[in-house]
Structure formats: structure tokens, C-alpha cells
Amino acid sequence: MDTILVIGAGGQIGTVLVQALQQKFGLSQVIASDLKASQSFTGIFEILDATKADDLMSLVRKYQVTQIYHLAAILSASGEANPVRTWELNMQTVLNVLEVARLENVNKVFIPSSIAVFGPSANPVHTSQQTYLDPTTVYGISKVAAENWMQYYHTKYNLDVRSIRYPGVISYQSMPGGGTTDYAVDIYHKAVQGQNYECFLSEDTRLPMIYMDDAIRATLELMDADAERITVRNSYNLAGLSFTPTEVAEAIQQFFPTFQTTYKPDFRQQIANSWPQSIDDSAARRDWGWKPAYDLPRMTEDMIHHLDHQYHADLTQV
Ligand code: NAD
Ligand code: SER
After folding, report:
1. How far apart are CA 32 and CA 13, in angstroms?
2. Is residue 219 within 8 Å of residue 240, measured between CB atoms?
């Protein structure tokens, strides 16, 4: 029976992934961990600072962990405020996870990468799996390095480490943690609360995105795939949908016709300009059967349905 450790479980993706893993493996088989405890967690929770290798090792031994999902990182926009700290945290935690997994014979490891590995030299349309990687952010640099470390641990030690280059993840369950794609979550929250939205990217900035349900399903499908099918050991390109701020605003106006968006690009515009507009994920489709389920209208309907319920329920409790 597998025992799963999730590191960085209190973040945007971890909050939802822990629930999905609990459903799949059972409540007692999933250990959620983060720097701080969260009241919203049901199940086993442990405080863990993943920069501390000894603490990570103790936890893996205590629960005889067989799979690790390592989600702790500082994301693209937050990372630019303190590049050295971002590099240290993002790299130290990845190396600790890989090394502890190797020493403790952990069966499988998942460490996500990002569309932030791409930079100006990559073709921005339908960006291919194998292309020049020249990221402009310290976050992107750390993800390229992490991809190379994953490849190294697989080749040298046969560690079964798997990865996805997530696009911007859009969720109603949790808030994003300091990325360039965060606007695509914020805009829904504002619309559902009856407010207009000032967007920090320009109206025509097209970026690759993915709905949380698809992102979680992709993660579980990748981790379930037979090892022989995994031909990409740095990180798989993954496509969900691609849209501009104007397009998502128009989709929202189908539900809230008076909703308005204004545009005031800030430093995140330059980051977005260096990223792809759409992604070629043919390797993921070929190797483990990836296919996204959500397009913009379907995602918008689901986001608004759930956020409306959240805000409405909150109001009735006041
Ligand atoms: P997040 O910022 O929402 O959450 C990260 C979590 O890590 C936080 O709960 C934080 O407390 C925790 N953390 C930070 N430092 C830690 C440490 N030293 N030890 C233990 N925990 C620590 O991030 P997210 O959006 O959930 O992203 C999870 C992973 O997915 C990251 O690797 C990120 O790069 C990647 N990713 C996310 C997106 C996205 O759009 N959300 C897109 C591409 C890739
Ligand atoms: N959503 C993430 C960010 O904007 C992509 O890795 O940083």
C-alpha cells in the first residue's frame, strides 16, 4: 500500500491535490505537510520546512513514505522580489527531495515544472517539448535546473521521478500564490462579487492556462502510467487552454453582462511576454494519453457556479 507525502500542501495546487490523493489512496495514507498548519485540512498533517533535509528524512522514515509530491516553491512574480532567496529555496528543496528519495528508496516522486522554463528564444506558438530554454525569471531558471536534476537522478540512480510543466492553474478551491497567471483567478472572484477588475496584464496577452480539475487529473494520470511509457524524464509539456484577458472577460460577461475590465500592466507584463502563448503537448498525449476536458466556456461556467456558491454561502453565515 502506498504512503504519500505532499510537501507544500497548503498552496494553490496542494490544497486540491491532497484531497484527490486522499480519495484515491485513503485518508490514512496521505501526509500533508507545509511550513504552517492549516485548519482546513482533514487527515494527517505535519509541519515541514523542506529546506531542512534531516527533517524531511525523519518524516519519510516515520511514515515509510513510498511517494513524494513536492509542491513547495516561490513562484514567478514573488520570486523577482528576492531572486537569491528564490533560487536557494527552489533548488535546496528539490535537491533534498531527490536525495532523500534516493537514499530511502522512495518508489515515485513528482516535482512540477512550469511554462516559466521557456523564454524569448522559444517559438511562442505551440511551443515544442524540446526547444531552447532561456527563462527570464529566477523562478524559470530554478525550474530548468530542477528539470535537469530530475533527469540526472533518473539516469544515474534510476529514481522514478516524473514532472509536468504546468500552465497557469485556475481554481475556485484555492487562491494562487504569487504567479504571473494569477489574474485569471482574481478576475473571477471580482466578477462574482459584483466588482469590476483592473488587470495587471495587457488585454491581448495570450498565455497557456489549465483548469485545476484538469491539472489534478493530469498529475494522477502521469503518476499512474507504467514507467516504461514515460519517455520524458525532465518534464512534460502540458496544454489545457489558452486565452487573453479580453477573452476571459468576454466569457465572464456571458454571466455578468455589466462586468468591466480595465488594464494597467505592471512588471508581470514582461514576464508574460517572455512565455509561450500555447503549448505542444503531443508527448504527454502519446505517452500517457493526456487530453484536457475544459475549454474557456466550460471552465467559466464551473468557476462562476462554485464561486457564486462560496460567496453566497459566506454571506448567509455573516
Ligand atoms: P503556492 O505558492 O500556492 O504554494 C506553495 C506552498 O509551498 C505554500 O503553501 C508554502 O507555504 C509552501 N512552502 C514554501 N516554502 C516551503 C518550505 N521551505 N517547505 C515546505 N513548504 C514550503 O504554489 P502552487 O501554485 O500550489 O504551486 C505548486 C507547485 O506547482 C510549485 O512547484 C509551482 O512552481 C508549480 N506550478 C504552479 C503553477 C500555478 O499556476 N499554480 C503553474 C506552474 C507550476
Ligand atoms: N502560474 C505560475 C506563475 O505564474 C507558472 O509557473 O508563476
Report:
1. 12
2. no
Are 51 and 85 found together in one domain? yes
The structural domain count of the chain equals 2
Q: Are residues 255 and 272 in the same domain?
A: yes
The ligand 1 atom at the shortest distance from the C-alpha of residue 15 is 26
CATH of the domain at 217: 3.40.50.720
Alpha-carbon gap, residue 305 to 318, rounded angstroms: 20
**pLDDT tens digits, 13-44:** 999 999 999 999 999 999 999 999 887 789 99
Q: Are residues 255 and 111 in the same domain?
A: no
Q: Is 164 found in the same domain as 16?
A: yes
CA of 224 to the centre of ligand 2 (A): 25
**pTM attached to this predicted model:** 0.97
Query: Which of the ligands is closest to the CA of residue 201?
Result: 2
Q: How far is the CA of 256 from the centre of ligand 1 (A)?
A: 32
Long-range contacts at 44-51 (CB < 8 A, ≥ 24 apart): 45/9, 48/7, 50/7, 50/8, 50/92, 50/93, 50/96, 50/97, 51/88, 51/89, 51/92, 51/93, 51/96
